[in-house]
Amino acid sequence: MLRNLLVGVPVMLLCLLLQAVFITICLRYYVRFDNVRRNRESLGLDILMLAMVMLVTLLGNFVQMAIWAVLFMLLGEFSDYATALYHSGVNFATLGYGDIVMSQRWRLLGPLEAANGILMFGVSTSVMTAAVLDVIKHNIAGLRGSEQP
Q: What domain range includes position 23?
């Protein structure tokens, strides 16, 4: 068990750092788009901003799944990357199919990756929710501004 923690926790920390990088990039571009959007009303910009937030956060999650898959390959758990990535995706998304399992020696990495995944999907969801609420707030403010004489 200790071996699993010594291997899994650093990967989790790397994933947390990567997600922070992806969210920071996402927020910087969101602020830039938001400054452009404030100067004009555009449904297209709202859609583009929300799509960008969703794609960047999702990309961050996919990169993390790929990192876990590389770890599984380095540990010799899978003979091909596609299987390792599939297993990683099932763990990261907390699906837990159980159709492919790791050896008893490393199987505790599965729950560690699941804990990492559920946390990262939660962070991604909160960033997306904040972006959606900001777009809603902006549109409501625009409607209220156009109603006043």
A: 2-36+43-132
Indicate the helix (H) or strand (E) that contains 16.
helix 2-39
We report the CATH number of the domain holding residue 49 as 1.10.287
pLDDT tens by residue, 35-58? 776 766 678 888 888 898 999 999
Going 14 to 102 to 105 to 77, the CA torsion angle's sign is negative
Within 8 A by CB and 6+ apart from 78, the residues are 69, 72, 84, 87
92-138 pLDDT, tens digit each: 999 988 899 999 999 999 999 999 999 999 999 999 999 899 888 88
Q: Is residue 140 part of a domain?
A: no
> How much is the pTM?
0.86
